Amino acid sequence: MIRALALAALLSAAPAMANEGIVAGMSQNRVSITANFDGSEILIYGAVKRNAPAPDTPLEVIITVEGPSTPLTIRKKARVAGIWVNTEAVAVDAAPSFYAVATTGPLRSILKETEDLRHRITLPRVIRAIGAATEAGDSGDFIDAMQRIRIGEGRYRVLQGAVELTEQTLFRADIVLPANLTEGEYRVRIFLTREGRVIDAQDRVIGVRKEGLERFLFNLSREQPWAYGLLSLALAALAGWAASAGFRLLRA
Fold it and tell me: Which key words tag this protein in UniProt (predicted)?
């Protein structure tokens, strides 16, 4: 009897959760890194489609943009015998090279902890620490320090209130991508939430790649490192000769 009532409650709630969906777009889905690239701005916009009248509870929107993830080791320096040396370390399985999360309101108010754990939306959830040196103790301090550094560099951004939502239907957000982008695919996720629960989500991809001379030099360094090394030496010698010739002309 109890199972039957629980099943009936789930079936009655399912249509309500499926009544709202995302229709979204982006101003561009490709970013080219060239010699004069100084960053880019992506407009993410969309609307909420409904099959029934909207519930009375407020609708919230969360948008995340995540760059390629790489493993890294976070180290802590300490002064030993007057010399600064690495004493403790924490290994991180995956940390995004860029991460921005934009919302219509405070994350604590519009997203439940269980939903964050499931979808990995906030910064602490998207960074995965898998190990630490035994002398490091709690790895949380290391992760917090890395977040502060990358926030200061503009590589991690928490933009609470940056998503505009009109008439509980239309939304938009402008996400600024910094100049020091890592080449690869950037994952864009859009979430609709009510009472802290995710009711719909959508994924998009932005391709970021080097173009022109930057692409040529990048490929050369990977495919023919000896040629890249010789070219670097030749350019350095040419720059030195040009500087020397310029000084001689100034003295003349």
Answer: Membrane, Signal, Transmembrane, Transmembrane helix
Question: Taking Cα atoms as reference points, which of 41, 39, 45, 40 lies closest to residue 63?
Answer: 45
Asked whether residue 9 is assigned to any structural domain, the reply reads no
pLDDT category at 6 given cuts 50, 70, 90 is very low
Answer yes or no: do 35 and 148 share one domain. yes
**Does one domain contain both 86 and 145?**
yes
pLDDT at 16: 43
The domain in which residue 49 lies consists of 21-210
Tell me the backbone φ, ψ of residue 144, rounded to 5 degrees.
-60, -40
Question: CA 54 to CA 194: how far, in whole Å?
Answer: 11
One domain for residues 138 and 232: no
Number of domains in the chain: 2
For the four alpha carbons of 123, 127, 133 and 137, in that order, the dihedral sign comes to positive
**What is the pTM for the complete model shown?**
0.74
pLDDT tens, residue by residue, 178-192: 888 888 899 999 999
Nearest-5° Cα angle at 113, 149 to 101: 40
**Model confidence pLDDT, tens digit, residues 73-97:** 877 777 777 777 767 777 778 889 9
Does 62 map to a domain?
yes
Domain match, 46 and 101 both: yes
Neighbours of 248 (CB within 10 A): 9
